[in-house]
Amino acid sequence: MTRIRFLKSYVNINDAIEKYAKNFIQMQERVRNEMHIFSLTSSFKKDSMWAYYAKNQGICLEYDFNKIVDWKIKRLFINTYKVRYGKKKKFSYTKLIQSKIHNDEKANQESDRMIMSQLLTKDKSWSTEEEWRIVSSFRKNEKGYKLSLDIVSAVYVDYSVLHDKKALKIISLAKANNWNVYVRFFDKYNAEYCYETIDNIQTLKEKYSMFEKE
Fold first, then answer.
1. What is the phi/psi pair of residue 195, to 5°?
2. CA distances (Å), 109 to each of 100, 113, 137, in order?
3. Is the backbone of residue 90 left (phi > 0), alpha (psi -120 to 50) or beta?
4. Among 44, 61, 50, 48, residue whose Cα is nearest residue 166
């Protein structure tokens, strides 16, 4: 009988642990989904980012946030921060989950600070990116908000995808909205990437035939 009782107790405890673990994972996922991040960099001339994120075959969009005039929309961009590079501080998910369970304002503020510290810190090896992040927290709204804004100021297209269907569509959109369009190409003799306006495309083609990578 003792053995049977022990087994029953063990099963009950195990079920409780599994339920708690499942709830914890769901809560953790909810916290992640409530945070929305928009990552940017300070310059379009980041060769490391062109290589890492686009394999030197992509498109870069330049934004001008001064084009936002509606103060209600400006409020959504208040939480724009420069990423810090270094070692991240220790993070307690237990405290974070507790704040969500009890819904205490002070605890929520502390958990938000912990989350922001994690989101705005990256290892020093990424420091060349000079990243900025727009962070928004939408509690009880994991989908966030969809905004239609005309804040693009320029488009940079790598020569390798200049005639790609998607690139042509973006270029057409840029011209319709008076956005500046530049073409990125590799100057083999100077061993560096250069940029020219798409209006000088014929000149660019001639240069590319001379400077094209082997």
1. -135, 135
2. 11, 6, 12
3. beta
4. 61
Phi, psi (rounded to 5 degrees) for 161: -115, 15
Classify strands 80-82 and 84-85 as parallel, antiparallel or unpaired: unpaired
pLDDT 10s digits, 45-84? 999 999 999 999 999 999 999 888 888 888 878 889 999 9
Residue the block writes with tokens 């035939």: 209
Strand runs labelled E in the chain: 35-41, 59-63, 80-82, 84-85, 121-122, 131-137, 152-158, 180-187, 192-197
Distances (CA, A) of 44 to 40, 69, 75, 83, 182: 10, 24, 26, 17, 11
Token code pair at residue 149: 């804004």
How far apart, in whole angstroms, are the C-alpha atoms of residue 109 and residue 123?
25
DSSP letter string, 150-206? --EEEEEEEGGGTTSHHHHHHHHHHHHTT-EEEEEEEETTTTEEEEEEGGGHHHHHH
Judged by phi (left if over 0) then psi (alpha if -120 to 50, else beta), residue 122 lies in beta
CA atoms within 13 A of residue 34's CA, in its CB half-sphere: 16
Q: Could you tell me what percent of the chain has a pLDDT over 70?
A: 70
For the beta carbon of residue 127, count every other beta carbon within 10 angstroms: 13
